[in-house]
Structures are given as structure tokens and as C-alpha cells.
Design brief:
Elements lengths: L8 H12 L2 H11 L5 E17 L6 E16 L4 E7 L3 H13 L5 H29 L13
Antiparallel strand pairs: 1-2, 2-3
Helix pairs in contact: 1-3, 1-4, 2-3, 2-4
């Protein structure tokens, strides 16, 4: 699905980034921003579980893969903007920071938040993927068949 057909594509991208980023890095970047937006907690961070579903080859019938622990939170800024945060695991601070960033990304502060917080998170995830790919490539084994010339 491209961004032209989905008006929420940008929001999905930053919510995905916030959920996948390490909680410690998000917390540090949030602290470095030195902002405390006036907000109301609509849903205190709470821990629960979700059923993860999968498809064989991404095309088969869906099946229940297993359960996963998630933490969610929702906030409302003083201007009425609502933000949500869903993260894997049991880190309530991570979910609350994700909700605050989601709300701020829907305001006039979006460009500043993207530059100061989301860009470093993006870079960190890209570097992690590059490091994993390099480590996997180092263990690659090429198998080949030798033809012995027999008919």
C-alpha cells in the first residue's frame, strides 16, 4: 500500500518506529528534548496480551501463532490532540513515551520531533539491520555440485 492511497501511512510509519525502537534509546531522546507537554493520561499504561496470527508464505489461511505481551497507553494534549502507544513487552514508560510522541507528531511540533527524535531512531534501526545482515553474510556457505564428467 503506498502513501497516496492511505492517508494514515505516515502515522503508521512513526507508530511502527516507536514500537520497534529500544525503550532506553527512546527514553534518552525524549529526555534530551527537554519538553513536558501539558497532557492528560486517557489510558494509563497497562500490560496485556494479544494473539499473533500468521500465514504460511504470506498467502495461506491465517493461523494463531501464539500470544505476545504488549503495553498500551493513550494521552490527550491540552489542545485536544490524542496519541496512542502500543509496544511489545511490559515497559510502561516506553508505551507512555510512544503515546506522547504520537500526539506531538500530529501538531505543529511534528518537524522538530521528527528531526530530534524519530530520525535518530530510524538511523539506529537501519544500522541494526545492516549489522545483522553483515553478520549473516559472514556465515554464508555456498554449496555447489561438481560435475565429474560421467554420463
Amino acid at each position: 500500500m503506498n502513501m497516496m492511497s492511505d492517508p494514515n501511512a505516515k502515522r503508521k510509519d512513526w507508530l511502527s518506529l516507536l514500537a520497534k525502537s529500544p525503550a532506553a534509546k527512546l527514553s534518552k531522546l525524549w529526555t534530551d528534548l527537554s519538553i513536558e507537554p501539558v497532557h492528560t493520561v486517557l489510558r494509563s499504561p497497562e500490560i496485556g496480551g494479544v494473539m499473533v496470527r500468521g500465514r504460511a508464505g504470506a498467502v495461506g489461511a491465517a493461523f494463531n501463532l501464539g500470544e505476545m505481551t504488549v503495553t498500551r497507553a493513550s494521552v490527550k494534549l491540552s489542545d485536544g490532540t490524542v496519541g496512542h502507544g502500543y509496544v511489545q513487552g511490559r515497559d510502561k514508560g516506553h508505551a507512555l513515551h510512544a503515546a506522547l510522541v504520537d500526539a506531538l507528531m500530529q501538531t505543529k511540533m511534528a518537524a522538530a520531533i521528527d528531526t530530534a527524535l524519530l530520525a535518530p531512531l530510524r538511523d539506529g534501526l537501519k544500522q541494526g539491520a545492516t549489522d545483522r545482515a553483515a553478520k549473516a553474510a559472514a556465515t554464508k556457505v555456498d554449496f555447489f555440485t561438481m560435475v565429474r564428467g560421467e554420463d
